[in-house]
Amino acid sequence: PKAKANLPYPSRLQKEKLREKDDILAAKFMKIFQDLHFELSFADTLIHMPKFAPMFKKVLNNKDKLIELTKTPINENCSAVVLKKLPDKLGNPGRFLIPCDFTGLDNCLALANLGVSINLMPLSIWKKLRQMVLELADRTISKPTGVAENVFVKVGKFYFPADFIILDFVADPRDPLILGRPFLSIAHALIDVYEGEITLRHDD
């Protein structure tokens, strides 16, 4: 007859059986505690489970160590929340500028402004007539010269379509364009005020 091969790691199988037995005993132990009532004393319960008596003794003898284990270190941010510590006061990060590439314009920068609902371009850069009236922040009324539709704004290697309100005003030569929420939404803009960075993303 063929010899039967010995099972690998017999000690491991033995440990698994002992562990399963301990789990069964623990489950019975918890069941007894769940059924504990006034007619059954705590001492009588321990008599039924002598295996766990040394465990209770060990826990009671090492209660000081258990208290030490409950001390969990937390990071600086969590400490600030718990201690109600105020964050550091920072200065003005400045303006967020987007470099745009237009034919015939060198170093054209656009001001990213979440406070406006339009994209604004001075008359000197683009001309296209359409009647419209704008109410400015100071409540004054200004009549734009026109609207430039579907203007492709090149930022780096990406092109973003945008409509510009054309207004005859004295623009800052350093950043003549103002890009409002419509453009920032199209470009999936992410503004990090703390780092002073603005990130534009393309659908492709």
Task: Describe the 3D structure.
The chain is of the alpha/beta class and 204 residues long. The protein folds into two domains: 62 residues, no CATH class; 103 residues, Acid Proteases (Cathepsin D, subunit A, domain 1). The protein is built from six helices and ten strands; from the N terminus they run H-H-H-H-H-E-E-E-E-E-E-E-E-H-E-E. A three-stranded mixed sheet has the order 1-2-8. Strands 3-7-6 form a three-stranded mixed sheet. The chain has a two-stranded antiparallel sheet with strand order 4-5. A hairpin with a 4-residue loop joins strand 9 and strand 10. The protein starts with 9 loop residues before the first helix and ends in a 5-residue tail after the last strand. 12% of the residues are buried. About 3% of the residues have low confidence.
Characteristic terms for this protein:
2 domains, 23% strand, Cathepsin D, subunit A, domain 1, alpha/beta, three-stranded mixed β-sheet, rod-shaped
Query: Roughly what percent helix?
Result: 25-40%
* Overall 3D form: rod-shaped
How many helix segments? Answer: 6
CATH class descriptor of the largest domain: Mainly Beta
Short account of what is shown:
The protein is α/β, with parallel strands linked by helices.
Blueprint (SSEs and pairs):
Elements: H1 10-34, H2 42-48, H3 53-61, H4 63-69, H5 76-82, E1 97-100, E2 108-112, E3 119-122, E4 134-135, E5 141-142, E6 146-155, E7 158-167, E8 177-179, H6 181-186, E9 190-192, E10 197-199
Parallel strand pairs: 2-8, 3-7
Antiparallel strand pairs: 1-2, 4-5, 6-7, 9-10
Organism: Tanacetum cinerariifolium
GO molecular function: RNA-directed DNA polymerase activity
InterPro entries: Peptidase_aspartic_dom_sf
